[in-house]
Amino acid sequence: MKYSNMKINKIFALLLAATLFAACSDDDNDWNNGNATVSMGQTEISVKENKGIFNVPIEVEGTQNGPIRITVEVAETGENPAMDNIHYYVTSKTILIPADATSGNIEIATVDDDDINETRTFTVTITKVEGGSIGTNAVTTVSLRDNDSAFYEKLQGKWKMEGASPYTGNFSWDVNVIGYEENEEGYNQTLYVTGMMGYAWTQATLAYNFDMTTKKVTLSFVLGTMFAENVGFTDGNFDVYLGTVNGNQMVTSGTIDGECSEDMKTITFDTSKVLYFFLAPAGSGQLSGNLWDAIGNITMTK
């Protein structure tokens, strides 16, 4: 069914391209004879492969007294190139910019597949201008980002965390996994889980990793990161840090890893390790040797 849709999209794109090309044809060739320069509007564009139709902008600078016709070519580039008419379709590789306009667009439609892959790239290059000259910026590199491996976003939301503490017994908490927006540093790298210990103000740092070879997702508690700040205990106010133990030694480096199920609905953490919540006098950054609690046999389910 997906293949049939792809063919329909291609036929539609080709029909639309033919229509636009006919509309752009000008038997009089009464092109602009002013001093106009044509350039790509952006050097780089990044979209997800399920974006659908998007535009690659072209800009005109200088004097215009007539229409300008622009022709572009697309080409594979990079380590994982995107192929024309396979990973995307170009509606028309020739556009007409009227005398009263200073910009136009190359319209491109992405192809959404079910494959998990690295980002695919291709270039759009101005190769011919009738009624003007090609500017210094004649190339746009387009990146098609995979959406099938976007487990980072799928993992966010409400979960049930369960396990056992050697001090307080079994526990069950309603927790929430949050992360960064796509344009923020930390996206596809770091997640946070709030609500542990039954308090919304706790926040554990999780390292996110997706292995392209095995197609497996790993979430890891990052030891040494702050879990809660300025918490009031009977002995004073303390900051809380994630850690574990090795014999009688407190450990605040490394991770406790959890593996996600294929349906992304269960996360099972390393049962050989216990997650400790170490205390440090508020603002000191120095562990006191005391702890809030510890938990093991940790699982998360949606």
Automatic annotation (TrEMBL):
Pfam families xrefs: Calx-beta
GO biological process: cell communication
Keyword check for Flavoprotein: no
Domain of life: Bacteria
InterPro entries: CalX-like_sf, Calx_beta
Signal peptide: 1-22
One GO cellular component, as annotated: membrane
Keyword match Repeat: yes
UniProt entry keywords in alphabetical sequence: Calcium, Repeat, Signal
Domain Calx-beta: 22-127
The protein, known as: Conserved domain protein
Organism: Bacteroides fluxus YIT 12057
Lineage of the organism: Bacteria, Pseudomonadati, Bacteroidota, Bacteroidia, Bacteroidales
